[in-house]
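Worked example 2:
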Amino acid sequence: MNSQQNELYLTGLLNETLPPDWVDSHLEGLLGLPENSSYLILHAHLDNILKRTIDQLPPETVTAWKKQLQTVFESLTDGTPLETVTVLNLLPYTRTLVMTAPDALSADQIRSLLDDAFQKFNSALQAKYGASVAAFVSAPCAKPADLSPAYKKLRQLSQYRFVNGMGLLTHADDRQASETVDLIDYKYLQYFQEYLAKHDCRQASDTIDELVASLRKHHASDSRAIYIFKELIGSTIRHLYAQQQDYELIARLNDSITYFDRTFDDITQVQVWLKEVVSMCLDDSSAAAEASHPYMKRIIRIIEADYAGDLSLQELASRLHVTDSYLSRLFKEELEVNFKDYLTAFRMNKAKELLESTELTVREIGEKVGYPIPIAFTRAFKNHEGISPRDYRNLH
C-alpha cells in the first residue's frame, strides 16, 4: 500500500468514516502497521508565526514549504524506538502524527521518550522557523481501532491549549476535558479595575499574575481565559479613555481584542504583554520617565513589569526589532550601566523591599524577583549588597 492510501485510511479511521467491519477486522492489514506494537496519536496546533507564513506565502511556494514542515514533523521520532507512520493535516493549522511503539516498551518508557523527542523537535522548530506548537499526545493504544476515540479526546483537550501554553506536550492521561469553575477568577477583574483607578501599577501587575495562576489551577478552558483577558484589556481601554491618555495605545488595545487569536499564542504571551501595557500607562514615577530615548523608556517599563521573568538582552532586542549590540550600547549611553547590572540592581532593590516589609521566606522572595534557585539568589544578593538576605533582614 502506498503512503497516500495509508493516509486516506487513517484519515477515515480518525474521522470515523470507515465502514465498521473494516475497523473491526481488516484495519491492521489495510494500514500495513507493524505487529507487536502499540499505537499513539500526537495532535499539534501551530503558532501564529507558522499560521502567518502559511497564509502569506504565494501559491507557487506554499506547497513546497508545507512539505518541508511535514518533514520536520516526521523527524520527531528520529533516534528513538518510536516510529512515525504518517503526518496528517486533518484540521486547519494543525498536524496529527500517528506513531507506533514496540510492545517491549512500558507506558512510562514511551512517555519519557516522547517528552525528550518533543523537546528536541520544538527546539528544531525554534531554530528553523522561530516558531513553536502546542501538542497533546494520547496514551498507548493496544489496537488501531482505539486511535479513533483517542483522537477524539485529544481534540477535546485542545480547548485548553491557550492556557497550557506553546512549546509544551500534554499527555492525555494527565488532563480531563473539564474545568473547575471558580468565581474567584472573575473577582480578579474587579481587583484589576480597582488598582487601575488607584494608579497602582504594582498591584495591577500582581493581579494579572495571580489570575493566570488561578486559571491554571482550575484548569480553565481557553474560552473562559480569553474572555477574562479581553475584559482586562477592555478595562484598560476605559481607564485610558477616561484619563484622555494615549489614543494610539487605545487603538492598539482595541485591535488586540478584535484580533486576539492572531495576536496571542498562549496565556503567558498575553500576561507579559498586558503587564507591560499596565506599566506604560500607570507608573509615571518610574525610571522610564527619566529616560530620553523611546526604546529605553519601553525597555525599562518591561523590566519593571516582568523583572521576575527570564529576561535577557536578546529577548528585549527581539521585541524592539533591534540588534543586541545596539541595545547594549544604548543602555550604556542612557544609563551608564550595562543591561545585566541594571536588571540585577532592580531585582535587588525589590528584594530589599520585600525583606523589609513582608514575612516571606528568603526562598519565596528569590522566586518573586527572578531567582527560582535559592542559592543563586543568596549569592547574587550577597555580591550586590555585601551581606546575605537573612542578615539584611535582621538588620532592618
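The mean pLDDT is 85. The beta strands are 37-46, 83-88, 94-102, 133-137, 169-171.
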